[in-house]
Amino acid sequence: MPVDGAPQGVINVIDGIVEPERVCELRGTIKRAEHMHEVQSVQPTIKKRRTKAKTVITFSDRGLARVYSPHNDALVITLHVNNLDIKRILIGQESSCKIIYYETFKQLKLEDKDLAPATSPLVGFNSMPKWLVGKIILLVKIGSVTRQVEFWVLKVLSSYNIILGRD
User: Fold this and answer.
1) Chain centroid to CA 153: how far?
2) What is the mean pLDDT of residues 139-153?
3) DSSP label at 61?
4) Please, are residues 84 and 7 in contact by the beta-carbon 8 Å criterion?
5) What is the mean pLDDT of residues 35-57?
6) Looking at residue 8, what DSSP letter applies?
7) Which CB contacts under 8 angstroms, 24+ apart, belong to 40-49?
């Protein structure tokens, strides 16, 4: 499905489950979960290889007009996916996976039959394994760049529609 042209619709927000007063409480839980994930994960040996050129997204000082520094705010963007603009996409600096939540997946008018099987759980949420519904490759456009991105589909509640991890 082409991603050029005007979007056919917009996916805004999935209701969140985190109240603002619980953020500090959850921060410690998240840190413990990240630590447990790091301790329990097995990392393959990384072979040195040639790095390919990556597209870099930059921001000017104009974008900081209403931001109080220093800050640790999350970077939340909008992407064009399957002819829809999807809002509330978190850029996760400490994550290496790309997650699309099941409710967002369904709003893209996709079906379970479009998914490839996923055979391993995702660890990192509450340090409990979460089984993936499957995985899917979607065309994603940001600015003038269009790429195929493999997403893991996860069926849990989230304040975000997608989480994009580092490459």
Assistant:
1) 10
2) 88
3) G
4) yes
5) 55
6) S
7) 40/123, 41/123
In the block, which residue shows the tokens 């997204």?
Answer: 57
What pLDDT score does 33 carry? 61
CATH superfamily of 9-40+70-165: Acid Proteases (2.40.70.10)
What number is the average pLDDT over the span 19-37?
A: 60
How many CB atoms neighbour CB 26 within 10 A?
13
Please compute the mean of the pLDDT values over residues 16-32 and round it to a whole number.
Answer: 58
Could you tell me the residue ranges of all domains in the chain? 9-40+70-165
CA 90 to chain centre: 5
| HEC readout, 93-145 | CCCCCEEEEHHHHHHCCCCHHHCECCCCEEEEECCEEEEEEEEEEEEEEECCE
C-alpha neighbours within 13 Å on the C-beta side of residue 110: 25
Enter the tokens of residue 117.
């099987």
CB 122 within 8 A of CB 152: yes
Q: What tokens appear for 46 in the block?
A: 């990384």
Dihedral sign, Cα of residue 148, residue 85, residue 7, residue 153: positive
- Work out the average pLDDT over 41-48: 49
pTM for the model = 0.61
Q: Tell me what percent of the residues of the chain surpass a pLDDT of 90.
A: 20
